[in-house]
């Protein structure tokens, strides 16, 4: 009878030990002293990232400007990120997209989805908001340091933050 209870305990506990990574959330925003429509005109087109993001060298798009479009982001530090637009709402000044081809040399994440939006700020001007949900680059239970949760969170946070800070600078200079 004792072996039965040992096997039962192992079967019940084993799934708890075999878990994968949990999603990581990154949420960044910035208030910009410029009209929301002017900020959206600068940052809203899916191919405009290289105009306002300091880490982006070029953007190549295909499939149109809205839902179903794809873009390849060429980073100044090297590497290409491939994304697909899931939802584009120009009137609502918002779009959602996802990475569809991981490039661990460019970003230490295995997958992500994100939403970029521009809204009127409560005290005037605009608020640009960039939020994402991602998984670390190595989804095993013991990832190396360069592909763990901290590396993934740090890379996406830095990418969003650099972009938003420079968007503010560019939009307010117009």
Automatic annotation (TrEMBL):
UniProt key word Signal: yes
Superkingdom of origin: Bacteria
One Pfam family of this chain: Polyketide_cyc2
InterPro entries, sorted: Polyketide_cyclase/dehydratase (IPR019587), START-like_dom_sf (IPR023393)
Segment forming the signal sequence: 1-18
Gene3D superfamilies for this protein: 3.30.530.20
Chain spans, region Disordered: 120-147
Signal in keyword set: yes
Keyword list, A-Z: Signal
UniProt cross-references to PANTHER family, sorted A to Z: BLL4707 PROTEIN, SRPBCC FAMILY PROTEIN
Protein name according to UniProt: MxaD protein
Lineage: Bacteria, Pseudomonadati, Pseudomonadota, Alphaproteobacteria, Hyphomicrobiales
């Amino acid at each position: 009878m004792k072996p039965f209870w040992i096997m039962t305990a192992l079967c019940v506990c084993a799934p708890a030990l075999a878990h994968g990574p949990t999603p990581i959330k990154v949420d960044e925003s910035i208030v910009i002293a410029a009209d929301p429509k002017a900020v959206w005109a600068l940052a809203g087109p899916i191919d405009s990232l290289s105009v306002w993001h300091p880490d982006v060298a070029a953007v190549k798009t295909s499939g149109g400007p809205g839902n179903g479009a794809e873009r390849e982001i060429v980073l100044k530090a090297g590497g290409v990120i491939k994304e697909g637009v899931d939802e584009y709402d120009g009137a609502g000044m918002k779009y959602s997209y996802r990475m569809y081809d991981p490039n661990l040399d460019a970003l230490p994440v295995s997958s992500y989805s994100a939403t970029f939006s521009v809204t009127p700020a409560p005290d005037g001007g605009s608020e640009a908001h960039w939020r994402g949900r991602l998984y670390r680059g190595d989804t095993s239970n013991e990832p190396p340091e360069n592909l763990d949760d901290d590396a993934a969170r740090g890379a996406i946070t830095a990418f969003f933050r650099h972009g938003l800070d420079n968007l503010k600078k560019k939009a307010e200079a117009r």
